[in-house]
Design goal:
Elements: E1 2-4, H1 12-15, E2 21-27, E3 44-49, E4 52-57, H2 59-64, E5 73-80, E6 85-89
Antiparallel strand pairs: 1-6, 2-3, 2-5, 3-4, 5-6
Length: about 100
Amino acid sequence: MFINLTSISPIAFELAKVGDVVSIKKKAPNAREFRGSLEKPVDAFLVFKGVTKVGMIPSATSNNIENISQIRRAVIQSMDVSIKQIAIYIDADTL
């Protein structure tokens, strides 16, 4: 499954490269944090390369993935600096 990340960190394009294994962590929002919704803040699935945040899996996508809480790793499939887009790939081998 290919997923385009949102809330991409600018340093991610310097730190990560295609083919890198990244970790997925469920994080609760900070008290004053905005995560794409004007409503009550929700938990998000953030993607990290080491200790640096690469981006966030969109809420609409994470709600549609049945076992998202069990997924711990993914692989960076594509990076496009010009349109600030990073896509990750998750399959059975990356669980």
